[in-house]
Design a protein that fits this description.
The strands form ten sheets. The protein has an eight-stranded antiparallel sheet with strand order 21-20-26-17-18-25-22-23, with helices on one face. It has a six-stranded mixed sheet with strand order 11-12-10-13-14-15, sandwiched between helices. The protein has a six-stranded antiparallel beta barrel with strand order 31-32-37-34-33-38. α7 (153-159) packs across α8, α11 (243-250) crosses α12 and α22 runs parallel beside α23. The chain is α+β, with helices and mostly antiparallel strands.
């Protein structure tokens, strides 16, 4: 037996002749798509339906599907199907199934027309009759039908709903009706056909949408209103608004607003902000009215444009500001009026804060006094005191006269257009000359009454109490002339006199009530600070329930220390107060950013390396007024070469963040009447941060001035020494050229600076290297003597040249 025969026998045994069927299940994986870009791999199986029957020879044969039925007007619809572009890719079996479905729809329509049921008659009255056969013929197959050309009839039947109608039982035939413009609603489930073709079903109209459309058509046929009248809204448009917020204010869909913006050429999202001009165009497009508002409109609630009713006005105490030069006795005069001793408690014997006091007179009348500092650093304090006052009392020492701060106080009072009462103090001291003071006042436009003017001048002594009653009487006369009145029955408003941070109480703010009545529990906003008033305390430390106009009080409860001079107002609720405070804080930050922006000149100066040297400082003080005064005083000493840069300033003690900032920037911390916390003190000692403690403003200014002076480059001053004439030039092998000279004027010193003059023209400037007389080195050679001279790194010397000797001196500069 050959190898070929063995191979054939083996194949016969391995493949016996038994009956087998081919595999009827096809499997595969498809990618299922979801919304938001999600996808999932799905394993699907397709089972084929095959029918077998016994053949004529007794064997089993497969029964093929029969063709489409004949006999109904297929030729009439065949041409329309062939003309339809979407039908050209159908198999003959699919086309025959379509014709069969059309025939069933035509028979159903004929039956309904000839013998309708009562329900169908009622529907016919309210709905138009639709030729459903034509509609079904006009409905194209989905795109998947094109891709599945040649698919067996079983698959085509599962794919298109028209084929399902042909295969349904007789009882349910004709109930599947698609109206004009409608498609079958998606079931939301993936089908085998969609899985194989990897095509998602399109979203169909919901049954609720079809029901609403029918109800709308019925109302329209009955003459009812199909749509409600459009509501015209007043839309408030701020400076910037998001698309979604604008849609909410118009009661419109966000997608509709985005469509309008796309028409305007803007591709935006729902959370993107648009400006007020664009929002105005969108609102106009929707037919609404708009109202433009700005961020600062939150302060409109604080505007007080109403004219006070004269019947509601009642007399109030006058507000008197005491002004004058330092150490002229302003605080001592107030102590004499109040029977207190405030001056003894002041550091260095000078006032460094604005004090607010109220004095009750014997007849029951009250006078409010504001005590302002006299030092030049407190100019801003005096200006604020003059603005919020009714009368200014100008204190002048009889033994000293009118000084710089006295002149400044006169200017502030004239700018505020308030009457001035002059108190000539210290008339009890030896050398006091009140007449000289009165004569000097006339140089500044203050003519005393005894000289025929209108300025009241009272000679007083705070130490002995002399003529204090006359001073009070003069103040009351001026107040009576002014007719000071206010309405106590309105919301309170006034001005912040001073503010500070207390470790136990928090923010302590001294205010002066100018209008209305302030009560405990009122919501107050002052500058960028807001809060509810927890406690009202007067200048004597007594707790009050309310404060009437013209009364100075201390309040607790603000969120932060406001600036001295800020206006405070009582608002309705916390939300309004917070909105106003946040707006003001943003505005302050923007102003600070603008102030720190360097100009073009500074940029060019930086490029040229001519920027001033900066002394960085951090200022912490007990009250806001002191912070302002120190920062203003230090700014005066800033120039082109040196400048003070205040990195941070605030009210309260020194904390760890202040030390950290000072370490990173190399700044000096100025602590005025405050101390460092224990942890901050340890951190400063470890990091070697310089903290300077002060209680008198003179010392702060002097120390900073000295530090700035040390940063200035010294001035170079040239001092002439003498002249020498070159008589002979010697060439020495080791030393080079040496000039034999005669000193003609002054003196020549070894190591001095020299200039070589040839024909009275400077040809070299350098340093004298050698000065000898005979063979010895000497320190100096006087006029009329001969000497030998050599220059450093220069040997082009000739007989007849002249040598000018000088020295350079460095002189320290001050700011």
């Amino acid at each position: 037996m050959t190898d070929d025969n063995v191979k054939k026998d083996t194949l016969k045994v391995a493949n016996p002749g038994r009956l087998q069927l081919t595999k009827t299940v096809e499997s595969g994986k498809v990618k299922q798509q979801f919304t938001h870009g999600r996808s999932k791999s799905v394993t699907v199986e397709v089972r084929k339906t095959r029918t077998f029957a016994q053949g004529a020879t007794g064997g089993m044969v497969e029964v093929k599907p029969q063709g489409a039925p004949t006999g109904f007007n297929a030729a009439a619809l065949q041409s329309s199907i062939q003309d339809d572009e979407s039908m050209r890719h159908l198999t003959p079996d699919e086309k025959q199934a379509r014709l069969k479905a059309l025939k069933i729809a035509e028979e159903e329509m004929k039956r309904v027309t000839e013998n309708p049921s009562p329900k169908e008659e009622r529907k016919a009255k309210s709905e138009p009759v639709v030729d459903e056969a034509a509609t079904l013929a006009a409905v194209p197959l989905p795109e998947s039908g094109k891709k599945q050309a040649g698919m067996p009839p079983a698959k085509a039947k599962a794919h298109h709903p028209v084929d399902e109608e042909a295969e349904r039982p007789e009882k349910t035939k004709g109930k599947l009706k698609l109206r004009v413009g409608e498609e079958r609603r998606s079931s939301g489930k993936i089908t085998v056909q969609n899985a194989l073709s990897n095509i998602e079903e399109q979203r169909m109209r919901s049954m609720a949408s079809i029901r609403r459309a029918r109800e709308k058509a019925i109302k329209k046929a009955q003459g009812g209103h199909v749509e409600a009248e459009k509501v015209i809204r007043d839309v408030v448009i701020p400076e910037a608004i998001t698309v979604q917020e604008l849609a909410n204010r118009m009661a419109a869909r966000t997608v509709d607003v985005i469509k309008v913006l796309m028409k305007l050429g803007m591709m935006v999202t729902a959370t993107q902000s648009i400006d007020a001009d664009t929002a105005e165009l969108v609102v106009s497009e929707f037919g609404h009215k708009f109202k433009r508002v700005t961020e600062g409109d939150v302060e409109n609630v604080l505007k007080d444009d109403e004219q006070e009713d004269a019947a509601l006005l009642k007399p109030r105490p006058p507000v008197v500001t005491v002004m004058g030069h330092v150490d002229h006795g302003k605080t001592s005069l107030l102590d004499a009026l109040r029977k207190t001793d405030v001056a003894a408690k002041e550091a260095g014997g000078i006032t460094q804060h604005i004090g607010a006091y109220q004095v009750s007179l014997k007849d029951g009348q009250k006078v409010t006094f504001l005590d302002t500092p006299g030092h030049e650093a407190f100019t801003a304090m005096r200006a604020r005191g003059a603005k919020i006052t009714d009368i200014v009392v100008l204190v002048v020492a009889a033994d000293d006269g009118i000084m710089e701060q006295t002149k400044e106080a006169i200017n502030h009072a004239k700018a505020a257009e308030v009457p001035i009462v002059v108190a000539v103090n210290k008339i009890d001291k030896p050398g006091a000359d009140a007449t000289r003071i009165k004569n000097d006042l006339m140089q500044y436009g203050l003519v005393p009454e005894e000289f025929g003017g209108d300025t009241m001048v009272v000679e007083v002594s705070a130490k002995t109490g002399q003529n204090l009653d006359k001073l009070v009487e003069g103040i009351l006369v001026q107040a009576e002339v002014l007719e000071l009145k206010a309405n106590p029955d309105r919301v309170a408003a006034g001005v912040v006199v001073e503010a500070q941070l207390d470790p136990g109480k928090g923010v302590v703010t001294t205010i002066l009530v100018q209008k209305g009545t302030l009560r405990a529990g009122d919501m107050v906003v002052a500058g960028a600070a807001y809060g509810r008033v927890r406690t009202l305390v007067d200048d004597k430390g007594q707790t009050l329930k309310e404060a009437l106009p013209g009364t100075p009080v201390v309040i607790l409860g603000l969120s932060q220390a406001p600036e001295a001079g800020d206006v405070f107002s009582v608002v309705e609720n916390e939300k309004t107060a917070r909105g106003i405070a946040e707006y003001r804080e943003r505005r302050i930050r923007e102003q600070q950013v603008v102030a720190q922006t360097r100009t073009m000149e500074s940029l060019f100066g930086s490029a040229a390396g001519t920027n001033a040297k900066e002394l960085p400082v951090i200022i912490k003080a007990d009250v806001q007024g002191s912070v302002e005064a120190i920062a203003g005083s230090l700014a005066k000493y800033s120039g082109d070469e040196v400048a003070v840069k205040v990195l941070h300033s605030g009210v309260g003690g020194i904390n760890e963040s202040d030390v950290t900032l000072a370490k990173s920037t190399g700044a000096m911390i100025i602590a005025f009447n405050v101390r460092a916390a224990p942890k901050a003190k340890e951190l400063a000692a470890r990091d070697k941060v310089n903290i300077r403690y002060y209680s008198i403003i003179y010392e702060v200014v002097d120390d900073v001035k000295a530090a700035l002076s040390g940063m200035l480059s010294p001035t170079l001053k040239e001092n002439f020494l003498g002249y020498a004439e070159i008589r002979e030039v010697f060439n020495i092998s080791k030393a080079g050229k040496v000039a034999g000279c005669m000193v003609t004027e002054g003196i020549i010193k070894r190591g001095c600076k020299v200039r070589l003059l040839r024909d009275n023209v400077v040809i070299h400037e350098g340093t004298l290297k050698t000065l000898k007389r005979f063979k010895d080195e000497v320190k100096e050679v006087k006029s009329g003597l001969e000497c030998g001279m050599a220059f450093e790194n220069y040997e082009d010397i000739r007989q007849g040249d002249q040598i000018e000797c000088f020295e350079v001196e460095q002189v320290a500069r001050t700011v």
